[in-house]
Amino acid sequence: MTSFIARATLLRCLLLSLPVLLLFSSCASSRYYNQRTLFRLTDEKGNRLDTARLRVAVNRTDRNYRIQPNDFIDARVYTNKGERLIDPNGKLDFGSSGGSGASGASPRSTTASAGRAGGGSGSATDFLIQANGTVELPVVGRVRLSGLNLHQADSTLQVLYSAYYVAPFVQTRVTNNRVIVLGGGGQVIPLNNDNMNLL
Predict the structure, then answer these.
(1) Which of 79, 87, 111, 181 is the most buried (most CB within 10 A)?
(2) CB contact set of 26 (below 8 Å; sequence gap of 6+)
(3) Where are the alpha helices (DSSP H) in the chain?
(4) What's this model's pTM, rounded to 2 decimal places?
């Protein structure tokens, strides 16, 4: 009986001391953990870090983003080599409807301007890249864009739309790039620019 009480007391002491041990084991000096690694300018030996290679790699990846399945893209088609974008004389009416929009493109579509001629303002419609890498676009139908970067997608669509429009100018943009911030003020931040700084 006494051995049972001794074991129960020992077990109770261990269970009560376990949270205290865990609490104190999580406290460590900064010499064990390298703090501020994001803003570190020198390595462990005190030598200045070379950030040029990192900058080159980041710039290369920004420009060479490959379109993937489940991406949403915004494809805008303009006629006459994009004359409406420049408008050198200030005489084009930017408020009028025109351009190649979409009808029923995806659940994210906000306007439906089913392939109106006139070549103008584009639309705020997103097109979903399907799992097989294709996208359904107005006028030209299904097009495989998965695996292409944005410049290649522009060129591909420009060739396809040239059968229907005079000197088409195409702009494509991936619209579902985002960063998720966790914590008390957590939110989803859309990345509108390729070179957006998160700090």
Answers:
(1) 79
(2) none
(3) 2-25, 52-63, 83-86, 150-161
(4) 0.53
Q: What are the boundaries of each domain within the chain?
A: 72-174
Report whether pLDDT(133) > 70: yes
Rg (CA), the chain: 28
Residue 17 pLDDT: 86
Average pLDDT over every residue of 189-196 = 73
Residue 78 parent element (H or E): strand 72-78
Using CB atoms within 10 Å of the CB of residue 106, give its burial: 0 to 12 exposed, 13 to 18 middle, 19+ buried.
middle
CA nearest 177: which of 112, 121, 126? 126
Mean pLDDT on 28-36: 52
Percent helix, strand, coil in the chain (nearest 5)?
Answer: 30, 20, 55
What are the structure tokens assigned to 49, written together? 């870090």
How many angstroms from the chain centroid is the CA of residue 28? 37
Three-class SS state of 121: coil
Q: Record the tokens describing residue 181, joined without a space.
A: 């911030």
Reported as a pLDDT band with limits 50, 70 and 90, residue 90 is: low
Q: Which residue has the tokens 């030598």?
A: 47
Q: Which residue has the higher pLDDT, 155 or 81?
A: 155
Mean pLDDT over each residue of the chain, to the nearest integer: 73
Asked if residue 82 lies in contact with residue 169, where contact means CB atoms within 8 angstroms, the answer is yes
pLDDT at residue 134 in the model: 94
